[in-house]
Amino acid sequence: MPITIRDVREHELDSVVALNNAAGPSILPMDLAKARFFWEHAEYFRVAEQDGLISGFLVALSQDAPHDSPNFLWFRERYPEFLYIDRIVIARPRRGGGRGRAFYADVQSFAEVRWPQLACEVFLQTGNDPALLFHGSFGFREVGQNVMPASGIRASMLLKEMCSYPFVAETYGGKLPDLPWLRTRPLPGRQAALATGT
């Protein structure tokens, strides 16, 4: 069966948490509250599904998200507009099958028409060279390093310019055509804020 990349559904958050916490030490732990935060605030929160099972996910937030990650805040202090990849997780038995590349192609396509830059980080720890090479093959470049205060983990801060963004912004002025492939997921957190006026 083919792999489908689609928006996560609310009832799948438990599966996302389990997948995240089985990924190993290169991925920060996550609880259901964090998954719900992503559900409510992430501009991009998609899963890879195959044979009815979730085999991976990617979460990305805009610079406006109320996110407290030190790496996210590092980018926000330096860049006015970006989409930040908070995490990508592929189930261990499914790694090496192209899901990571498919996610990165998809999130880049999503970001290209909305933000001038795509940001992420890679932890600088032994054995993580493949992750740096993976990001380099997608055109990311290091723009600095950050040491996370709580853990002392050093991260390589990576950025990629979205080449089509200037043309899209000039042509459409922030109002993209109403086409299925350009639609974004509704953000419950944003809708609640609009309803209460906060």
Automatic annotation (TrEMBL):
Domain of life where this protein originates: Bacteria
PROSITE patterns listed in its UniProt record: GNAT
Domain N-acetyltransferase: 3-160
Gene3D superfamilies xref list: 3.40.630.30
One of the record's GO molecular function terms: acyltransferase activity, transferring groups other than amino-acyl groups
One Pfam family cited in the UniProt record for this chain: Acetyltransf_1
InterPro entries: Acyl_CoA_acyltransferase, GNAT_dom, UCP028520
UniProt name for this protein: N-acetyltransferase domain-containing protein
Organism: Arenimonas malthae CC-JY-1
